[in-house]
Amino acid sequence: MHRKTKMTLCPLLALAACALLFFAQGALGAEYDAYHLMDVSGARDGHTIAGPQWFVTYWDVNGLLRTRGAPLTTAMDAYAHLPDRFSSIRIFPASLNRDHNKIQSIFLVNKADQKAAMDIDFYNWSTLIDPTSDPTPSVMADIEADVAEHATQVTPSTPQSVESEAALSVDVTFRAELADYRSTMGYLTFRQSLNGSRQSILIPIVVADVYDGTAADESLIFDMTVVDSGGGLVTRKKFTWGAEPDNPKTQALGNFFAIFPADAAIGYNLRTRVTNRTGTSYRVQRYDEVISPDSWAYDLGAEEISENLPASFQLDPLSQIAPGLVTNYNIPIADKLRLYSFGDTRPADLTLTYRVIGGMTPYGETLTNGTIENPYTWNVTAFQMKFADQAGRTTQAEAAAADDGNTEDEIAAEIGGTPVMPDITYAFTADNIDMDYYFGADRYSAFMISADTAPAYAAPLAADEVPLLPLRVRIRLSKNNPLISAKWNDAAAASDILNWFTKYGALWLRSPNTRELDLNLFEAVVERDYSVGQCVQAFVDDSYLYLDVNVLLADAKSGDSGKTAQFRVVEDDSVPYILVSDGKADGAWTLGFFAAKNTSSLPDNNSNNNTNNSSGKKGGGGCQTELFSLLLLVPALAMLRKRP
Question: What number of other Cβ atoms are within 10 A of residue 47's Cβ?
């Protein structure tokens, strides 16, 4: 990624007291107001710039995690009292032992090339908190700061005696040793000695060094996940936007296939994480309302977050996509957000497009070979599909009269008979999976569909009718899988996960009925003038690679001369589906799926997510669909939009 190292300096808030007084003015109000984190980058377009900023996360008297900027007062036992005045952190002896408002962490955001400072006052003044208490004896107190890759300085640098009802001011400064745009964690160590009793308290501090500018020069990082109503993972897309050459204004997230009962609402949520390493906040709002993020988080690794810091916290909603942090949104995919830009004379909107494909009613439960304790390597869902060009038509005759080239006719021409899907009462169960079929030692995440067709239909099919079973198949490969283990570190940096995977592995099909044996699905798709990405979805989550594909499985033999099995790509409302005949019309659906080495040399960019085919073929119907466009983030602000 291009990183711009030449910075424009803005006035340095080097005097900590002045800086914190500024922030104190922005933080005054109700005791539990969340902190409003503002822009750090230099002034532009009339924006008000706050400069370096601090806030703390702390537990309030009700046990809720809060955020607050200056003013802040804390007892030496790492408990905080928050008055409505004062411009600095105030440290009190541990003997006062406040039992609420415990500090959890401290955050500083600053431009990477500048020094930031904080003024900390040690107060030996018990009557400020408890007017009925006796004055405390003198206290020896000091503070130490240690943050990786930062030069820190504490003035005075040695312990000082703080007399009763007196104060000691200490300046703590931070400056990054490298102009790198990221967050680093360290600790502030508060130390004191009272009546021979010594105490040291470690409080985590996160320092975010940000780029002095906008996403036009330092990319924003997007991580978008779709989850179902039970929190199950549907799909995921990660990408950066802003600084790349010829930066596209559109990112295609592909098709989201919603397999839901016909009478149920699609309960999918879009969870969006935006990492902002610039000093500019981005707005996701209308003029008359604020679209509030779900939460904010530190831009650190999972191990640091889990051990020392909150996984997430709340800021003032006006902070939006704040400098130096990760901002989380959790929005139902049916929501429509209309957001408006301001200020920037050269807008550069980002449009995110995706499509929700409904009209799929599942036959029973999703089947898998794993448990929570032993995660699955594959799962499969069978579903009844309602072709889009059949919507509103009650008979086959009406459908044929309306469109001679509809999806059903296209499938019928390929498999030599009218496709008929099972009754909706059909239960797709574990009995339909052959778990003992042997594919070979170098075949991974393998399973065999072996389902009799007779139980799927209330009455025998006519001679010209062919049983058709739509399947949603997911292959899941661990980062330790031999196919990808040696290259896994490259996956995190890959802008196109599927294109990365096709260099090493592929999805394969096998039917015991065929003479063709194994078939490389990736190669077969490309041979039919489609890109792999039109028919296969891929993403990485945690330590696993996921590959999703929709297959229409026909109990039929091939109509091609000299062939037993058949492989085609058919479209329904411009959405491609894999059509496979299993090689024999024997009253059973029989087809195996597995991952193995890719023996083909596929061209780059074969995995684009464009849902329009490149062959010029006509697409048949689809399912009940909704099309949304998400407008997100111009350099001066964020835009997030879906439209029907």
Answer: 17
